[in-house]
Amino acid sequence: MTKYYLSFDVGGTTIKYGLIDSELNIIESNSCPTLKNIDDHILKSLKKITEEMMEAYTLLGIGVSTAGIVGKKGEIQYAGPTIPGYIGTPIKKELEKLSGLPVSVVNDVDAALLGERLAGNARGSDNVYCIALGTGIGGAYFYEGKLFSGAHASANSIGYTLYDKNTKTDYQKRAATLSLEAYLKNFDTSVIDAFEKAKDGDEKFKKIIEDWGDEVARGVAEIILLFDPELILLGGAVAKQDEYLVDLVRRHLKDYVPEGLIQTQIKVSHLANKAQLLGGIAELVDI
């Protein structure tokens, strides 16, 4: 009888979930809304789906990738206003009690990094930093066999770094993909279209993308100088720009890192939306 892992990816608006086989294939996936977590809707949904999957399949374990900061006992230590009432939710405890199976709960950026180590562009790397460019900017660091999360599980909050008191903006307010998207609305252009126009030589959009790339590079420079990782992964939907994004960041890094100190390899994430589901179970499988 085939056995599977059940993995969840909890975001602000949607809970994605899927069954993963021993070859790391996602053989069934679906989603449901978070409904703003009214009346502990997220935890209730995780438990309901787990019960349904246990009735239909033989499970080996359960992984949960989630927005927010995850405490040492697999509870939600901190969550922003996009998921009300989520702080303190004892995900690991409740799912272990329900299923009797091993349960892993990790932050979604950590999960993205773990997924890429498991089956993506960071496969096998023991010193890799992931920067997720999206609605905000999140960071995750895998070092010497484990995730580095700091004394209080809040390390790698890089979106809040590089604060500018004059503009009252931090790194993510200037370099998140959402910030680029908001600026491009002035030109009635999407992020994807702006990149295409820049690639085609449109000077206006080349400058917009170069300026944004410069902001991204400032944060990447901080990571290189502080941690000197073997590899930095750039994640988020903008990772689809592949080598164009990598080259963009590399060009601007030279303005922020002294010559000779840029030895870190830079790649984009490879697994897209699959990364969090695979990363959710990474600590349950042998990698």
UniProtKB/TrEMBL annotation:
Keywords linked to the UniProt accession: Plasmid, Transferase
Family membership noted in the UniProt record: Belongs to the ROK (NagC/XylR) family.
Class in the EC hierarchy, top level: transferase
EC number(s) per entry: 2.7.1.2
InterPro entries on file: ATPase_NBD, ROK
GO molecular function: glucokinase activity
One Pfam assignment: ROK
Official protein name in the record: Glucokinase
Spans through the membrane: none
Gene3D superfamilies: 3.30.420.40
